[in-house]
Hints:
The protein is α/β, with parallel strands linked by helices. The protein contains 7 helices and 12 strands. The chain is globular and about 55 Å long.
Amino acid sequence: xxxxxxxxxxxxxxxxxxxxxxxxxxxxxxxxxxxxxxxxxxxxxxxxxxxxxxxxxxxxxxxxxxxxxxxxxxxxxxxxxxxxxxxxxxxxxxxxxxxxxxxxxxxxxxxxxxxxxxxxxxxxxxxxxxxxxxxxxxxxxxxxxxxxxxxxxxxxxxxxxxxxxxxxxxxxxxxxxxxxxxxxxxxxxxxxxxxxxxxxxxxxxxxxxxxxxxxxxxxxxxxxxxxxxxxxxxxxxx
Length: 238
């Protein structure tokens, strides 16, 4: 009973019923944008439970790791990314497909839970992610930008299969260029006759630091190299 009361308080504290924008991103992702004006204090690295007020899903809640949008026209909004699977996410994706890829739905936001990882005491901070897992770590990388400008070495590596994945958070990633040690590894979408070097030279996305590879990067070698090069203490987050 007490647990349910706490949940209701958190939902009410976030403004109760909120209108959110749902959009298809890439081949299988749903991007949810929620106005941030009535939400409780957000901490990078925290998570929320989202209730979508549709006939087929209002009784279900799903956990999400949100981040603050830097997309034009959505600056400051809370953003969630959900991969299409079964149940409510499949139904939502099908509805969006039938609505030209976007729609408005009423939602309830329960949270925030969790805390920001205590990374600021380290000399080198390494953040590794792949695919849609970027949602769990981008907000932390973004929160470290001031620390990076004062000399802390912040390393952010993201592994994805193809360029279309960059549509998920293009503006957010661009905001980190020149601030943290960022590199994006794309492991598919290279013609068999085209070398990774040639693909890097002809990339249509010159703003972002992208490395094309026929294979997944050797993460173990990454870690060993970063530890060897680091000056002082090192923290890893993935």
